[in-house]
Write a structure and sequence with these properties.
- This protein is an alpha/beta fold and 350 residues long.
- Helices cover 27% and strands 24% of the residues.
- The structure holds NADP nicotinamide-adenine-dinucleotide phosphate and zinc ion.
- The site of NADP nicotinamide-adenine-dinucleotide phosphate has 27 residues, from strand 6, strand 7, helix 8, helix 10 and helix 11.
Length: 350
């Protein structure tokens, strides 16, 4: 790994990060990747990976170079947020493209943890005489591919816990739907929903709040909804069952079946391994990221079993005085943001 990078080099890799982020929500469980081709401090081509089955960032960047600039490829450097792939997947390897294009220098932020790649892409380029620098703004590069890294290293989705609590520490009240955060926080949650694969809720939350769990205040793909319904008796007219969008109903008995095609019933024992087994099932079905949106009991089970990677917790500007107490996280926040009169705290599971 190299450590001394110039301001200019950091500027170019940041441009690659920004490009990568354009695929937020459409790439997972594949990684977000951006690439920028630079000739004498001028960007002559750039691209990013848009999602499953699409050309890789490097391919788009090379294709983006104007005819009149092609002659400069042999004197350019390519900045990539992630190590170029070196295997035939849906597309030919990007290492071959770089060699064929005779680009002499590659600057990489982070190594691709996919087992077939994992340093092999870099080795191959170096063996063929390409100068390769790695580790530029690596922390940011790792953050961009954290869902992907989780996907290839573990047999579970990346689990994000999310809830809102009042100033006095309640997340809601029994048999009553209460709203805790402001409109900006709500919109942000809808943005998050467009970036993840699935949302999970507990039985009481489904019954009491009847949430839609869509990203209607943002744009992009709606997530899969997953609801615990042990006794299989949640009302059929709940939004998550009746709105035509995909929902998994997790149950212990299949006495009732649904005619709606959007509902997938999953029969599974509600034992101590329920959440662990469900996460494995999600991973098998290529659910790369899961947002757990409550209520308190479900969130606390994830916390107690250590089955989470990140938590995003809002504190609204309201007092509820009584109600259902918010879950307890065993760690301190890593980051804190003000969203008008709400506070958002981000926690990482160490
Ligand atoms: N402020 C927020 O961010 C927020 C978000 C969501 C909900 N809420 C509020 O939270 C309240 C509901 O919370 P809650 O704690 O009562 O309910 P909940 O977590 O939504 O649901 C609890 C029920 O879900 C099932 N369940 C949950 N975890 C389970 C596990 N690990 N294994 C097996 N079954 C599990 C059980 O159902 P069975 O006992 O039937 O099997 C349990 O009784 C509502 O007032 C809602 O408005 C607030
Ligand atoms: Zn590639």
């Amino acid at each position: 790994m190299n450590s001394d990078f110039s301001k200019k080099q950091k500027l170019f890799i940041r441009r690659a990060f920004d490009l990568a982020r354009l695929a937020e929500g459409s790439a997972v469980p594949n990684p977000m990747v951006g690439a920028v081709i630079v000739f004498r401090d001028r960007i002559i081509g750039e691209g990013y990976f848009k999602g499953f089955g699409q050309p890789h960032a490097e391919v788009n960047a090379v294709a983006n170079v104007k005819e009149s600039d092609r002659q400069y490829l042999t004197q350019s450097e390519i900045y990539v947020s992630l190590e170029p792939c070196n295997f035939f997947g849906k597309t030919p390897p990007c290492t071959s493209l770089i060699l064929k294009s005779k680009i002499p220098k590659v600057i990489i932020s982070t190594i691709d943890k996919t087992p077939q790649v994992s340093g092999n892409g870099i080795d191959l380029l170096r063996k063929n005489g390409v100068e390769v620098l790695t580790g530029i703004l690596e922390k940011e590069g790792n953050e961009l591919v954290k869902y992907r890294t989780n996907y290839v290293e573990r047999d579970s989705p990346f689990v994000i816990l999310k809830y809102a609590k009042s100033k006095d520490g309640f997340i809601g009240q029994k048999n009553k739907s209460v709203w805790i955060t402001n409109h900006f926080s709500k919109t942000l949650v809808h943005k998050w929903r467009s970036e993840i694969n699935a949302i999970m809720i507990g039985t009481n939350t489904a019954r009491q709040d009847n949430p839609k769990l869509t990203n209607r205040l943002y744009f992009g793909k709606d997530p899969l909804r997953i609801v615990l319904d042990r006794k299989n008796d949640l009302p059929e007219d709940l939004h998550i069952f009746s709105d035509g969008l995909p929902t998994w109903q997790i149950t212990e008995n299949l006495s009732r079946t649904f005619s709606q095609k959007n509902i997938t019933q999953i029969e599974i024992p509600f034992d101590d391994f329920l959440l662990k087994n469900l996460l494995t099932k999600m991973h098998q079905e290529k659910v790369g990221t899961l947002l757990v949106e409550g209520g308190a009991q479900l969130l606390q089970s994830f916390i107690n079993q250590g089955l989470w990677q990140e938590a995003r917790i809002f504190e609204g500007n309201k007092y509820l005085k009584k109600g259902i107490l918010a879950p307890q996280l065993p760690v301190s926040p890593n980051e804190e943001f003000e969203i008008e009169n709400d506070i958002l705290r981000i926690f990482h599971n160490p």
